[in-house]
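ugh ok fine here u go
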Amino acid sequence: MSSQDIPEENLPAEQEHAHGAVSVADEKNPFADPGLPPHEHRIQDIDERAARRSERMVALLFTVSMLATIGFIASYVAIPHDKSIFVFPIGHLSALNFALGLTLGLALFCIGAGAVHWARTLMSDVEIADERHPIEAPADVREKVHADFKQGAKESAIGRRKLIRNTMLGAVALVPLSGVMLLRDLGPLPGTKLRHTMWSKGKLLVNMNTNEPLRPSDVAVGSLTFAKPEGLEEHDENFQTEIAKAALMIVRLQPENIKDKRELEWSHEGIVAYSKICTHVGCPISLYEQQTHHVLCPCHQSTFDLSDGARVIFGPAGHALPQLRIGVNDEGYLEALGDFEEPVGPAFWERG
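structure:
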């Protein structure tokens, strides 16, 4: 059905507007302006049933966008990152990347297609020519802008076409969730990893140099020994991550020289085990002074007293080194009696 088949009285009224058309050239206007072509009504302007079909189509596109966004989130959560699929003719692809690209692309495409279909079939398509005006906006221009805005909102039918409005808002509101989900790729959620290391009850103390379990006799008075947890090897994929938290320094003191009561209880025959990671910025501590029982961080000279709970006596470090409680197993090897009771390393936002 076209506008020519509809009686004149049933057609929507044309909008009257001045466009300054000049049909005949003269000295003042050497170029003729034929003006705008006659407006042709669309089927949706004439038949409400066609308008409703267009409305349902737009709503369907927005609904598909919402479902695609939900599919994006579900794919991100459910599909393993190492799973692959074969897609002809491309070949093998990451199943996760393929699903994310497909669902996000479909969500964005449906929003765009829905908006275009809405504009082309339901919004007013009457062309309006407006005269140029100065940059300043007098009161009458502002009133005209407000009136034009209200007229545009009315012609868009966003208030009357509630199905389109609601599905559009739902689609536009859901799409940003795709970007929020992508923030997860900044790294795995830490959980409680920052609070724990590989040390646990029964873990043997292994010499970092010899890779052999330590006995009390291996630690001489005044010596500094570095240790790692049993089962942690240098060829392990997570070695650097774990050793950065679990690195241990072991010093043997005379029991009568230990001033801190808890330090003495957590030691074995004067052998004390402390985190090697400086509590300032995480540098490895490696300098030990036998006479004073002080250890020094080489980065910023933070100094800790190992005879007094490894408290800070100099430098920018904010708190003492965490101590590991140790003992001896039935075979005579030094072992941990648990994990550190507080997070190791630099300042932690919820220590203790």
